[in-house]
Amino acid sequence: MNRIFDRYAGVAFLLVGAAFVWESRKIGESSYGSNVGPDIFPMGLGILLILLSARLLYETLRGRMTDAASGEKPRLDYKRFGILVGAALLYAYFLEDIGYVLGTFLFLLLGFQVIERGRWLVSLLVSALFSFGVYYLFVQVLEGTLPGFPSWMNLG
Amino acid sequence: METLQFLADGFASALQWQNLLFAFVGVLIGTAVGVLPGIGPMSGVALLIPVTATLTSGQDPASAATSAIILLAGVYYGAMYGGSTTSILLNTPGESSSVVTTLDGYQMARQGRAGAALSIAAIGSFVAGIVALVALVLLAKPLSEVAIKFGPAEYFSLMLLGLAAVSGLAGKSMTKALIMTVLGLLLATIGMDNVSGVARFTYNVPVLYSGLEFLTVAVGLFALGEVFKTVLHRDYGGGEIIKVGRVLPTRQDLKESAGPIARGSLLGFFIGVLPGAGATLASFFSYIMEKKLSRNPEKFGKGAIAGVAAPESANNAASGGAMIPLLTLGIPGSGTTAILMGALIMYNVQPGPLLFEDHPGVAWGLIASMFIGNLMLLVLNMPLVKVFAKIIETPPKYLLPIIIAISVFGVYAVQYTTFDLLLLIGCGIAGYFLAQNDYPLAPLVLGLVLGPMIENNMRRALTASNGDFSIFLTKPISLAFLLVAVLWLLVPLLLKLRGKKVIINEEA
């Protein structure tokens, strides 16, 4: 897996480097008097990144098979990971719409249950305590701003 | 004498009640963070930056910066200490710098001497912290006076040296480490160019104008990356925890560990000052050294107290030593110090030689609070060892989602954009896959923090020389830095070519 990842990563980094070089050619003209414009640094780095990823690709192509074959890969828990990342994305994306308290409560409850089913009462309590607690401390005590509740709930 | 006066002022500021509280909270959280599986010093410090930002929001900028950095530094060395607890009780190191501690610490615990091992680790860390502190006080002023004479060319080369040192020693493949460094530097160019005011790589997306926020990237890469790893690998711990038992070490224990603690502190400090080396290497070297010096080396690995005392002192001394290049030169030598530096910059405090002139309160307040923090660490840890041992048992079921929630809260409370939250999660996923495939993350963060400064200094130097790149080679100090940087990259490569095993710094 390591070598395959390295190969893809090498290509990806190569493309990133190329993109930075290509795009930094567009910035150049707008520089003022100095002949060292804002394009030089990213362009140089882009070239460096291309060279380094070429080197990485070279290393993986003539790579030692021993690395890839050694050791058995543990079976990864993509299901829990997927659900957790999905939930986190939804939580992040809708945070401003559904408010901090509700969003955090739902996210935590789901997170707890995804990692280990059961003990609903504890899960409910911990998520409620955390979401209300953080909101109360931050907004009331420290006078910060967070989107508290969705606007249709008229709770503030 | 002037230094003493500043130090006294520093103590006055560190002894203010709110700063005492911040130091206490920092050390407490830090120890907990070090003990908890899954969060190390780096993610701990990164996670707490936004929390401290809100805690200090009521104060004026200078004292807010002082309080914040006092808390964060407390987390840093608290975590260094906390990591040893799991090494000793569980045989699983909390972070890589306490890997060596497992060798003898766990054996001691199995012989029923867990308490002695834990308390000797605390005493060693305390002594080491004090040694590092004294050296810091002695070196800070002269070093920053040298550094203040540096022009942009020297600075550029010095920062390159810092990057080269961290990349040369981080991770298994130098190619990968260098790629991460360059990537970090490139990501730092996104946003408004602060020399010419030109927007770069923003494509008219408003959130990109201020650039990628370092905090978001760091929290994502380290904290979320670790959470995702734990979930994917079903790494929920669950080892058997050994009872602590009698806490105080015996007189014999103390006698046997006095030498190792002194030697470990000194060695650790000097390794810590070197950029890129850091706590992990320090603990390895001091363990090897003690084994060589010992009259009965066969006891090592079977529960020798020197095998706990030396590496634990060394890794704490190294984290103190790492503060020197950060505070005097503005060059972070490791991932955690890079994060601390990012935090200082968030408060508009620029670490570097000018720090001692512009913000003496911050610099000396931090130094003084490190002393107080170390004292607290000792006072806190001796009686509370058993409580911290309980923290290990926090069920990961609750811990993991809460870490995600704290990350989201922290980033949102500072940035107020959904974009940063999505970037945070993206960085978490990227952080997991990169770290899993031996791409070290610390160089990336270092590049991101140093990027704007490197570019500024490079362009100022080049503007002065009319675009002639040879300015970096004709100035002697700059040339020396560049040569050392090249050597730092070449020597490990040459050693590897000759088939030697190179000790690398996994934690960075």
Mean pLDDT of chain A: 81
Largest interface: A-B, 66 and 57 residues
Question: How far is the first residue's CA from the last residue's CA of chain A?
Answer: 50 Å
Q: How many domains, in number, for the residues of chain B?
A: 1
Helices and strands of chain A, in N-to-C order?
Answer: HHHHHH
Q: What global shape of chain B is seen? A: globular
The average pLDDT value of chain B, as a whole number, equals: 82
Radius of gyration of chain A: 25 Å
Measured as a percent range, the helix fraction of chain A is 55-70%
The domain count of chain A comes to: 2
Q: How can the largest sheet of chain B be summarized?
A: 2 strands, antiparallel
Task: Indicate the proportion of strand residues of chain B.
Answer: under 5%
Strand order of the largest sheet of chain B: 1-2
Number of E strands of chain A:
0
Tell me the strand percentage band of chain A. under 5%
What is the straight-line distance between the termini of chain B? 36 Å
Compact description:
The complex is a heterodimer of chains A (156) and B (508). Chain A is an all-alpha fold.
Structure, described:
The complex is a heterodimer of chains A (156) and B (508). With 156 residues, chain A is mainly alpha-helical. Chain A folds into two domains: 3-70; 78-153. Chain A has six helices and no strands. In chain A, helix 4 (78-98) packs antiparallel against helix 5 and helix 5 packs antiparallel against helix 6. The longest helix of chain A has 23 residues, at 2-24. The termini of chain A are far apart. The relative contact order of chain A is 0.09. Chain B has 508 residues and is mostly helical. Chain B has one domain. Helix content of chain B is 73%, strand content 1%. Chain B has helices spanning 2-14, 17-35, 41-55, 61-90, 99-110, 114-147, 152-169, 174-188, 214-232, 251-273, 278-293, 306-321, 323-329, 335-346, 355-358, 360-391, 396-415, 418-436, 442-464, 471-474, 476-497, and strands spanning 191-192, 199-200. A two-stranded antiparallel ribbon of chain B has the order 1-2. In chain B, helix 2 packs across helix 16. The longest helix of chain B is centred in the first third of the chain and has 34 residues, at 114-147. Chain B starts with a helix and ends in an 11-residue tail after the last helix. At the A-B interface, helix 1, helix 2, helix 4, helix 5 and helix 6 of A face helix 8, helix 9, helix 17, helix 18 and helix 19 of B.
